[in-house]
UniProtKB/TrEMBL annotation:
Organism whose genome encodes this protein: Thiohalorhabdus denitrificans
Coiled coil: 200-238
Family membership noted in the UniProt record: Belongs to the band 7/mec-2 family. HflC subfamily.
Cellular-component GO terms for this entry: membrane
Name of the molecule in the record: Protein HflC
Domain Band span(s) in chain numbering: 22-184
Membrane topology value: Single-pass membrane protein
Species classification: Bacteria, Pseudomonadati, Pseudomonadota, Gammaproteobacteria, Thiohalorhabdales
GO biological process entries: proteolysis
CDD domains in UniProt: SPFH_HflC (cd03405)
Pfam families reported for this sequence: Band_7
Predominant localisation class: membrane
GO molecular function: peptidase activity
Length: 289
């Protein structure tokens, strides 16, 4: 009897252990989970720890909760000016809502395929709005920001959060490279000619302005010089008049001496009558002797 009771207890314990094993499940820090009942999703678990489910009728589907990579292969896109570009892109994403993720795409393989379709479609639209130069350099950052924002909104319906989308590489097809390079060189040469022409025009304007200012400065200097010279001549005349008023005879002698100095300093031959007014002071001197 005791043996039967012991066996019964052992069976109960075994059944209890099996039931507990099928009733408990753990979720790791790097995981999220969806509880399924007969294949139908019932609940999601996003916090790590020990959890309970109904044994034998429910099972658990685990998903990676870490940030995942999506590295798309290089593809050809067409710009607004009908230029082909080979663009290689990648994305950072994670499963934000495991229940919605399971209902929408079921697994990561399907999710990557759907995410790739969204990225390529939106990237094709963004590139089609811009020309070659804008895509390659001018608005590349804006393209990536718009791409991340729009794709993230669309992927949210699948329980996916898109963290970032980047363009790794942008190349030209080999058959178009030389033509595009030649065109870029021509455009740069045209811009250089325009800059040189504008620089020459500005230089001429600066030189003309400098010449005009120089002439104005010289004219003003000549005007002031004439004013100073006129004032000096007026003062000299006034001094001469004052001297003449004080002693007319001395002033006449002084002026005659100046005339003698200028006349005899040149060494030229002069024919004058001894009775000439020019020699009146010589005559007075001889008469005095």
């Amino acid at each position: 009897m005791n043996r039967i009771v012991g066996i019964a207890i052992a069976v109960v314990l075994v059944l209890g252990a099996i039931t507990a094993a099928f009733s408990l499940f753990t979720v790791d820090e790097t995981e999220s989970a969806v509880v399924l009942q007969f294949g139908e999703p019932r609940a999601s678990v996003t916090e790590p720890g020990l959890n309970i489910k109904r044994p034998f009728v429910q099972n658990v589907k685990y998903f990676d909760a870490r940030v995942l990579d999506f590295d798309d292969e290089a593809r050809t896109y067409v710009t607004s000016d009908k230029k082909n570009l080979i663009i290689d892109s990648y994305a950072k994403w994670r499963i934000r809502d495991p229940l919605r993720f399971y209902i929408s795409v079921t697994n990561q393989m399907t999710a990557r395929s759907r995410l790739g379709d969204l990225i390529r479609s939106q990237l094709r639209e963004e590139i089609g709005r811009r020309n070659l130069q804008q895509t390659v350099s001018g608005e590349r950052r804006q393209v990536m920001e718009n791409l991340t924002r729009v794709v993230s909104q669309q992927a949210e319906k699948m329980g996916i959060e898109v963290l970032d989308i980047r363009i790794k590489r942008t190349d030209l097809p080999e058959e178009n490279e030389q033509a595009v390079y030649d065109r870029m060189i021509s455009e740069r040469e045209r811009e250089a000619r325009e800059y040189r022409a504008e620089g020459a025009e500005q230089a001429e304007e600066v030189m003309a302005k400098a010449d005009r200012e120089r002439e104005e400065i010289l004219a003003e200097a000549r005007r002031k010089a004439e004013e100073v010279k006129g004032q000096a001549d007026a003062e000299a005349t006034e001094i001469y008049n004052s001297a003449y008023t004080l002693s007319p005879e001395f002033f006449a002698l002084y002026r005659s001496l100046q005339s003698y100095e200028k006349a005899f300093d040149g060494g030229e031959l002069m024919l004058l009558s001894p009775e000439s007014e020019f020699f009146r002071y010589f005559q007075k001197s001889e008469a005095t002797e």
